[in-house]
C-alpha cells in the first residue's frame, strides 16, 4: 500500500500512478530551443499547401453567430523544412471580433496576415459554415429559421486575390415526371440535395445579396422549396406546386444552370443535384460544370 495523502489532489494523482518530471538536459527557454521547422537546406520539393484543417472557430454570418470549420494553408518553399503552424491561429485571432466575420473582405485580410507572418508567396482558406436565414411559409407567411450549408473559398497571392468561390448546399423537393406520367394517381417525390460551387471574378465586387440570389436559383427551379413551418393551407400549396412542377434530376440541374448563366457576378459554376430516391435504396444524381 503506497503512503500518498489521498486528501490532496497531488497525493491522489501519485496514488493513481503519476510520477515527478525528470530533471532533463534540453533547454526550457524558447531562445535556446532548436527551431527545426525554420531550418534551411534542399528539401527536394516545394509544397503547394501546408497548414491546418478542421479548425472549429466562431463566425458571424449575416446576423447569426455560428461555428465555422476552417482549412488554412500556405505554400512552402523547397529550401524550408516546415511552416510555423502556431502563426496560423495567431493570424485568425488577430481578426477576431466577436467571432470572425464570414465575408470575403475579412477572409482576405486574414490571408494577407497569414501569408506575411509565414513569409510565403500565397495563402488559401476554405470555411464551412451553416447559413441561417428567415423563411416564410408560402400561404400563411409564418416566419421561421431555414438553413443552407456554405463553403467560402479564397486564395491570395501578395495583395491580389487569385480565386474566390462560394459553395452552397440546399435541400428541395423533386417530384418524378415519369411517375406522374405513367401512374393513374400520385407520383413519387423525394428530398433533393443541390450543391452549387459558384466562381467569382477574384478581384470583382459582389452584390450584397449574392448568397440569396444563388440560393433562389437552386430552390425555385425545384418541384417545391422546403419550409420549416407549414400549416394545412401551406401543405396543400407545396403538395400541389410539386405536382404542377415535376422535375427529373437532369431537369433541375439544367434549370438551375440557366439561371446561373444569367447572374453576371458568377464567372463559372459546378452544380450537382442528388435525389434521395423514395422508390429505391440508391440515389440519383447529375453534375454539370460550366465556364462563361
Ligand atoms: N511545421 C509543422 N508544425 C507542426 C506539425 N505538427 C505540429 N506542429 C506544430 O508546431 C507548433 C510550433 O509552432 P511554431 O509556430 O513553429 O512555434 P515557434 O517557432 O515557437 O513560433 P514563432 O515564434 O512564431 O516562430 C506546435 O504548436 C505544433 O502545433 C507539423 O507536421 N509541421
TrEMBL record:
Reactions mediated catalytically: GTP + H2O = 7,8-dihydroneopterin 3'-triphosphate + formate + H(+)
GO MF annotation, one: GTP cyclohydrolase I activity
Pathway where this protein functions: Cofactor biosynthesis; 7,8-dihydroneopterin triphosphate biosynthesis; 7,8-dihydroneopterin triphosphate from GTP: step 1/1
The gene coding this protein: folE2
EC number annotated for this UniProt entry: 3.5.4.16
Keyword Hydrolase: yes
Keywords: Hydrolase
Family: Belongs to the GTP cyclohydrolase IV family.
UniProt feature coiled coil, ranges: none
Marked site (May be catalytically important) residue numbers: 176
Species of provenance: Macrococcus psychrotolerans
Lineage, highest ranks first: Bacteria, Bacillati, Bacillota, Bacilli, Bacillales
GO biological process: tetrahydrofolate biosynthetic process
InterPro entries xref list: GTP_cyclohydrolase_FolE2 (IPR022838), GTP_cyclohydrolase_FolE2/MptA (IPR003801)
Protein name: GTP cyclohydrolase FolE2
Function, in words: Converts GTP to 7,8-dihydroneopterin triphosphate.
Amino acid at each position: 500500500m503506497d503512503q500518498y495523502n489521498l486528501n490532496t489532489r497531488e497525493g491522489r494523482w501519485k496514488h493513481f500512478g503519476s510520477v515527478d518530471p525528470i530533471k532533463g538536459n534540453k533547454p526550457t527557454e524558447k531562445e535556446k530551443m532548436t527551431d527545426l521547422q525554420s531550418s534551411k537546406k534542399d528539401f527536394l520539393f516545394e509544397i503547394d499547401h501546408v497548414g491546418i484543417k478542421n479548425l472549429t472557430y466562431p463566425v458571424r454570418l449575416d446576423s447569426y453567430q455560428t461555428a465555422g470549420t476552417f482549412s488554412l494553408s500556405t505554400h512552402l518553399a523547397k529550401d524550408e523544412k516546415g511552416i510555423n503552424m502556431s502563426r496560423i491561429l495567431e493570424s485568425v485571432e488577430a481578426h477576431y471580433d466577436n467571432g470572425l466575420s464570414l465575408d470575403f473582405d475579412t477572409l482576405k485580410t486574414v490571408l494577407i496576415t497569414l501569408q506575411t507572418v509565414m513569409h510565403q508567396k500565397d495563402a488559401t482558406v476554405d470555411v464551412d459554415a451553416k447559413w441561417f436565414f428567415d423563411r416564410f411559409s408560402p400561404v400563411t407567411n409564418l416566419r421561421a429559421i431555414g438553413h443552407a450549408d456554405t463553403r467560402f473559398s479564397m486564395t491570395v497571392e501578395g495583395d491580389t486575390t487569385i480565386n474566390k468561390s462560394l459553395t452552397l448546399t440546399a435541400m428541395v423537393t423533386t417530384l418524378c415526371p415519369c411517375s406522374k406520367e405513367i401512374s393513374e394517381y400520385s407520383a413519387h417525390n423525394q428530398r433533393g440535395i443541390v450543391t452549387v460551387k459558384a466562381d467569382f471574378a477574384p478581384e470583382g465586387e459582389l452584390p450584397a445579396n449574392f448568397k440569396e440570389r444563388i440560393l433562389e436559383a437552386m430552390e425555385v427551379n425545384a418541384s417545391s422549396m422546403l419550409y420549416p413551418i407549414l400549416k394545412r393551407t401551406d401543405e396543400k400549396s407545396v403538395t400541389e406546386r410539386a405536382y404542377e412542377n415535376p422535375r427529373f434530376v437532369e431537369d433541375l440541374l439544367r434549370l438551375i444552370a440557366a439561371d446561373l448563366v444569367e447572374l453576371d457576378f458568377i464567372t463559372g459554376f459546378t452544380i450537382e443535384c442528388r435525389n434521395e430516391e423514395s422508390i429505391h435504396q440508391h440515389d440519383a444524381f447529375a453534375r454539370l460544370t460550366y465556364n462563361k
